[in-house]
């Protein structure tokens, strides 16, 4: 299976991480561009569009983990410029469609946007040569989702996987080929804040526990702020997960399973 090509761009005054994600060996189309998705374009739309051009990619979807302003500020201009459909957590759609009603003083202005697709969690998306599981991970915000992304398999493998159903999903998780685009659920040495409207610590803790139980410790986590990490690293060292460590078996990370830099 091929690897992911993940490019990180830290944007805006809140230093939010936006990601352009594609399969590393994805062939270029007739336009000479490789397919990709963009996750959480929070601000600096022109900079992100310039980066897309330099990377030689065609944005086929815009994925949103949650609708706090620092993650959606550039959604409207990117959707308009690329023609890519927007995938938004269903519960948080009103924040995207009336964005300035939810932005604190001193930030913006941002454009509202009506998403083409809403997500509740549990969906399997095939976009831009990627297979994407949508995981419902509330706690930082009520509708937050995490995207578990892996390169798509060839048609023969995909056909067999479709027949395998849940067994295939488990195999993909265990393979180490899946990466998590975690938004504001889990950070390097920290977790998403829960003092904003709709935040709830027990709910967030359950969401993190679900990720730790479902994916191997070497799974790479691309968070919405701060640096790239792994589930195992956070399970074993994150100071906010002390109580959780008592309930989730200790991770065993291979010596060479280190997180890539940003």
SSE layout:
Layout: E1 4-11, E2 16-23, E3 34-39, H1 45-55, E4 57-63, H2 69-72, H3 75-82, E5 86-89, H4 93-97, E6 117-119, E7 124-127, E8 130-136, E9 145-151, H5 155-164, H6 166-175, E10 179-183, E11 186-187, E12 190-191, H7 201-214, E13 220-223, E14 229-230, H8 231-237, H9 242-245
Parallel strand pairs: 3-4, 4-5, 5-6, 10-13
Antiparallel strand pairs: 1-2, 2-3, 7-8, 8-9, 9-10, 11-12, 13-14
Helix pairs in contact: 1-3
Polypeptide structure, described:
The strands form 3 sheets. The protein has a 6-stranded mixed beta sheet. Strands 7-8-9-10-13-14 form a 6-stranded mixed beta sheet. The model is unreliable at 155-164 and 252-262 (pLDDT under 50). The chain is globular, with a radius of gyration of 18 Å. It is α/β, with parallel strands linked by helices. Helix 1 packs parallel to helix 3 (75-82). The protein is built from 9 helices and 14 strands. It has one domain (4-245): Ribonuclease Z/Hydroxyacylglutathione hydrolase-like (Metallo-beta-lactamase, Chain A), CATH 3.60.15.
């Amino acid at each position: 299976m091929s690897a992911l090509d993940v490019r990180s761009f830290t944007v805006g005054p809140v230093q939010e991480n936006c990601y352009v994600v594609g399969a590393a060996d994805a062939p270029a189309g007739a336009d000479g561009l490789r397919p990709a998705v963009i996750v959480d374009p929070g601000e600096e739309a022109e900079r992100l569009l310039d980066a897309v051009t330099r990377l030689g990619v065609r944005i086929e979807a815009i994925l949103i983990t949650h609708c706090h302003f620092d993650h959606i500020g550039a959604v409207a201009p990117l959707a308009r410029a690329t023609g890519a459909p927007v995938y938004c957590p269903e519960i948080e759609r009103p924040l995207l469609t009336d964005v300035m009603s939810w932005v604190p003083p001193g930030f913006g202005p941002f454009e509202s946007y009506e998403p083409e697709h809403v997500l509740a969690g549990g969906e399997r998306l095939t976009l831009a040569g990627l297979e994407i599981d949508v995981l419902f991970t509330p706690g930082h915000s009520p509708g937050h989702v995490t995207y578990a992304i892996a390169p798509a398999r060839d048609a023969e493998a995909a056909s067999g996987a479709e027949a395998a159903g849940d067994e295939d999903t488990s195999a993909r998780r265990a393979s180490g080929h899946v990466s998590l685009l975690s938004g504001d659920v889990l950070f390097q040495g920290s977790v998403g804040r829960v003092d904003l409207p709709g935040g709830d610590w027990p709910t967030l803790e359950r969401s993190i526990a679900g990720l730790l139980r479902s994916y191997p410790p070497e799974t790479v986590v691309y968070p919405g702020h701060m640096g790239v990490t792994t589930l195992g690293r956070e399970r074993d060292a994150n100071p906010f997960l002390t109580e959780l460590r008592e309930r989730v078996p200790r991770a065993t990370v291979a010596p060479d399973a280190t997180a890539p830099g940003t």
